[in-house]
């Protein structure tokens, strides 16, 4: 298979294709930092910097992948919709497909595009695909099914003119696992939230993201009950974040610094596709299976379901869970490099506590007690480890 990757980011969709013996013939991303990472890991692949300037796809392309920008679709972004300045760039995918026959198209984006603007993003995507003669299917999946402790829901859309995408997305169904597979020794949450939500996750972190409610790229926090004072609220290091997305640690190290001299690595990782999700998908592209997920025709689609298939104006709802399969789960504390995890800073923890006290959300009492103790400890200047202030400021 020959693969062309558009909006490639750091290669989360394309990397597993290489592992399956496919040949990547094109990667494209407009961000300098992304291209630095791609150049380091795909040194022999043609690299383009602007999808708008691509006249055509290379000859012999079998698969086009596109994790197109979620900036205008995600809750952490502007939510301007599919016609927004950045998410609207997906129109260039369709432009390129009009001029080149390909076997498969793989799109990936945030869960919010199913509901934003009454589902207009999905309506636009499927109408464009059907106008090009594609059959399409999509499924909402949770990255935890791949074994990584990150509760990350993303929409995978697969389309083809000649093949049945149902045999790719709906040939597996494990079902949501019970809570017994998760330990209760660590809980992830967003320290940038606190008024209306937390992204609370047991034995996992909430979705890594390139932005936050404060408008800055930021790691989630992890509550570790029973840890030493000052170590009960910590944030993962960037290498842990890479592992939470299924990449090798240090994958984004080639990223360029921004104009302020700050690293773009957190934003790159937050915008990436979880590698294990793409690995499962590619396995089914190579070996399609029998459809095992129950489904029914939708006479009046209304709101877009979590999984569906369509062709020629007709839509079927699939009763698919977000866990098509289940890989061996790696527990959060087994993945985190705890010595490299930074204590949540005094400023961050105090601001979070202030929002928590003003909110109407319900919290575990032990969590609130540890949060208040952490704020006091970080403000006290007490240095049990001798490096607390330096680590917190890093």
UniProtKB/TrEMBL annotation:
Gene3D superfamilies linked: Vaccinia Virus protein VP39
Superkingdom in the source lineage: Bacteria
Positions of the catalytic residues: 70
InterPro entries linked: C5-MTase, C5_DNA_meth_AS, C5_MeTfrase, SAM-dependent_MTases_sf
GO MF, one example: DNA (cytosine-5-)-methyltransferase activity
Enzyme nomenclature, EC number: 2.1.1.37
Enzyme class: transferase
GO biological process, one term: methylation
Catalytically driven reaction(s): a 2'-deoxycytidine in DNA + S-adenosyl-L-methionine = a 5-methyl-2'-deoxycytidine in DNA + S-adenosyl-L-homocysteine + H(+)
Keyword terms: Methyltransferase, Restriction system, S-adenosyl-L-methionine, Transferase
Family matches, as PANTHER family: TRNA (CYTOSINE(38)-C(5))-METHYLTRANSFERASE (PTHR46098)
Record family assignment: Belongs to the class I-like SAM-binding methyltransferase superfamily. C5-methyltransferase family.
Protein's name according to its UniProt entry: Cytosine-specific methyltransferase
Gene source species: Marichromatium bheemlicum
């Amino acid at each position: 298979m020959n693969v062309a990757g558009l909006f490639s980011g750091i290669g989360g969709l394309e990397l597993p294709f290489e592992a399956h013996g496919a040949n990547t013939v094109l990667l494209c991303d407009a961000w300098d930092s992304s291209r630095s990472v791609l150049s380091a890991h795909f040194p022999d692949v043609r690299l383009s910097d602007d999808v708008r300037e691509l006249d055509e796809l290379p000859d012999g392309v079998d698969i086009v992948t596109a994790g197109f920008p979620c900036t205008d679709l995600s809750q952490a972004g502007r939510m301007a919709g599919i016609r927004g300045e950045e998410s609207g760039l997906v129109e260039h995918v369709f432009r390129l497909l009009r001029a080149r026959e390909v076997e498969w198209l793989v799109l990936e984006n945030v869960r919010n595009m199913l509901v934003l603007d009454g589902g207009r993003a999905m309506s636009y995507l499927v109408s464009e695909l059907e106008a090009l003669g594609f059959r399409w299917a999509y499924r909402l999946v949770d990255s935890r099914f791949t074994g990584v402790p990150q509760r990350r829901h993303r929409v995978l859309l697969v389309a083809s003119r000649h093949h049945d995408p149902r045999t790719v997305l709906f040939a597996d169904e494990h079902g949501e696992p019970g809570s017994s597979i998760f330990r209760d020794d660590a809980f992830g949450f967003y320290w940038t939230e606190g008024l209306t939500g937390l992204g609370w996750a047991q034995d996992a972190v909430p979705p890594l993201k390139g932005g936050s409610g404060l408008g800055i790229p930021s790691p989630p926090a992890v509550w570790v009950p029973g840890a030493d004072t000052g170590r009960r609220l910590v944030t993962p290091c960037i290498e842990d974040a890479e592992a939470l997305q299924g990449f090798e640690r240090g994958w984004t190290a080639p990223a360029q610094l921004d104009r302020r001299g700050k690293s773009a690595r957190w934003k790159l990782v937050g915008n990436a596709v979880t590698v294990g999700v793409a690995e499962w998908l590619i396995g089914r592209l190579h070996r399609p299976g029998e459809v095992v997920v129950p489904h029914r025709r939708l006479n009046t689609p209304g709101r877009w379901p979590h999984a569906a298939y369509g062709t020629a104006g007709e839509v079927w709802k699939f009763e698919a869970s977000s866990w098509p399969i289940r890989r061996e789960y790696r527990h959060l504390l087994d993945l985190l490099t705890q010595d490299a995890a930074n204590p949540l800073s005094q400023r961050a923890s105090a601001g979070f506590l202030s929002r928590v006290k003003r909110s109407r959300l319900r919290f575990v009492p032990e969590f609130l007690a540890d949060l208040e103790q952490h704020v006091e400890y970080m403000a006290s200047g007490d240095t049990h480890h001798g490096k607390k202030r330096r680590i917190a400021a890093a």
